[in-house]
Prior knowledge:
Elements: E1 6-11, E2 14-21, E3 26-30, H1 42-47, E4 53-57, H2 76-89, E5 95-100, H3 102-113, E6 118-124, H4 136-147, H5 155-163, H6 165-171, H7 175-185, H8 196-208, H9 213-223, H10 230-233, E7 240-245, H11 253-262, E8 267-271, H12 278-281, H13 283-294
Parallel strand pairs: 3-4, 3-5, 5-6, 6-7, 7-8
Antiparallel strand pairs: 1-2, 2-4
Helix pairs in contact: 2-3
Amino acid sequence: MPGLGQTVDLGGGRRAAYEVIGDGPPLFYFQGGPGFSAALLRPDAELLADDFSVYLIDPAGSGGSTPPSDPSQYDHIGHARFYDEVRQALDVATATIMGISFGGIVALTYASLYPESATRCIAVASRAVGDEVESDDAAAEMEAFLARHSHEPWYPSARAVWDEWTDRVLAAEDAREVDAMMAAVLPLYTADPERPGVRAMIEEWRRDMHSDLAAIKVWESGLWQKIDARPLLAEIDCPTLVLVGAFDLICGPTQGRLIARAVPGAELVIVPDAGHFIAAEAPEAFAQEIVKFAG
Length: 295
């Protein structure tokens, strides 16, 4: 998969790689991870191309974007600030702000910090708190969704990587080690990894993902475990959609309900028979809900 095709100068020798897909009102779509190029979101953006100009932007340090000078800026606030620099550099006045997974936390953070620039906010497969502050219900939900795959022949090896994830990431010396780990656990994130569109997405990620090891190490060194974005969520005043897969093991209905309760007036939609990658698992529902909300 080729990288994002354009770059914009952010000053001080920094740049951001980006691409615009579609024609319509601007929609900024933030990648998850952290540590992955937004090029992996092209299939998602193409589902929305008839209704929006979808801006894909490589996160700082990933793909073609330069890393932050301070590793602390890999958090959700640092990412939001980076994306607002990009918005200003591209001379986009306002936009719908959307993100998936960690990018969803960033989108919510952006809407809180930059209310004059965010006309709407969409959090796809997102969470607002880390495991040190999440409820017992969320932990039980994750275990139940993991167990849905326990009969599969690939499950024992995938589960071993899952259970050892943080220690193995922190010990990794090459980003390719993390890429191989992610390749092993990707099926766990889905409701049905053998569904044709889902299988194609998994193979595409396995082939094309190139992790930013620095970002992932910071993330696993205590950043995500302690994250609590709820104080920021209470300050969001634009219309907000929370889109959740019914079988998402890390950002499932329990996390979605938490976000929807914290954001004033937020709308929660739970997509049946979908896991973490809603655009691949339920493409019609993904596009329909976003166009209905923001189109």
